[in-house]
Amino acid sequence: MSNPRPTAAAVAAPDVPTADPTSGSAADALEQASSAASLQRTVDRSAQIERDIKVDPGRFRVLTGDRPTGNLHLGHYFGTLANRVALQRQGVETLILIADYQVIADRDGVGQLRDRVYSLLADYLAIGLDPDETTIFTHSSIPELNQLMLPFLSLVTEAELRRNPTVKAESDDTGGRPMSGLLLTYPVHQAADILFCKANLVPVGKDQLPHLEQARVVARRFDERYGRADPAHPVFREPEALLSSAAHLLGTDGAKMSKSKGNTIELGMDADATAAVLKKAVTDSQRHITFDPQNRPEVSNLVLLAALSSGREPQDVATEIGDAGSGALKKVVTEAVNDHFAPIRARRAELAGDPAYLQSVLRRGNERARDIAATTLDQVRAAMSMQY
Ligand code: TRP
Predict the structure, then answer these.
(1) 84, 129 contact by CB (below 8 A)
(2) Is pTM beyond 0.85 here?
(3) 75 alpha carbon to ligand 1 midpoint, in Å?
(4) pLDDT tens readout for residues 4-28
(5) Which domains, from first to last, does the chain contain?
(6) Hey, which of 214, 348, 371, 383 has its CA 20 to 30 A from 333?
(7) Three-state DSSP class for 60?
């Protein structure tokens, strides 16, 4: 979302101690989650999972989520949101978490939280997530999920938490603000998000892989330490990552998208606001338009955006514009974006005008998530001899 996210480069930075590859401890596994070889394994495994989904979508339960910290933009849309709709259409059961408790991990107070939650929900529904098929819920509404945090915290050490590369990157990002206990432990909370519903698949970007490894470690250690409710199955299954192969959009200035730089196009912007952002987009001095992300990042990013919005190949878009130059490119990309998003934006405006409906969707999702969480917590209590 629009709060500063650690970049993949920051996460892979060399201050992460390299683990001894011969030692198989869970703590090492956490650190290795961001190594190149392990990344390649995850990429390969994700491709296999994509194939398995086509054959048997019913084998999978997906959990994913967002922090409600800002408005969704086209980077989110083409990076992850469109894929959630595709999973839903393929018949994969999906739960989507609006991670409201995560918002207070690295800021003071809740700010515009309530509006942001409803705005995010409107975005989800506008792009085609169907509340009859996809369970959308808020962290803070599911006490049984949050209660898992206590047994889970008993399964990790403080040193492990401090070594988590994403926690490190985020705490470096807070401009000297002291790290809260919630920020230090949020990977464990995120493990609860994933494990409470026994999701076996989590669509993530590279930067979130250490969290997924944390969830796998917690699932495994719970079984080792506390045992089972039903001797035939561990209480928790180990989730896998579904790494996105989606194109990575930059901001309209060629830099990383960030709200504060004014280089993003939000899902909820209208056609005129979109045109205004694209009018200011950075290009270069070469008249001939090509798709060459390495050498012409700004121009290529606009070509890519036009291609994604119109369902075409970037090379074809570039060839068609050819010598017409960057003015023509901006016209093409503005039209492509506004055409593609017109129905989504119309639906979003309709939804935003119907808060009672949005509330009913969230209540329904929360009820369903709570039912699932209560069943899991019962099993946890049984495994831990805490049923009185
Ligand atoms: N950390 C995610 C983000 O910043 C949101 C999130 C919370 C999440 N819990 C999750 C994502 C569990 C996947 C799985 O956007």
Answers:
(1) yes
(2) yes
(3) 16
(4) 333 333 333 333 333 333 344 565 6
(5) 8-12+41-246+355-383 (3.40.50.620), 259-352 (1.10.240.10)
(6) 348
(7) coil
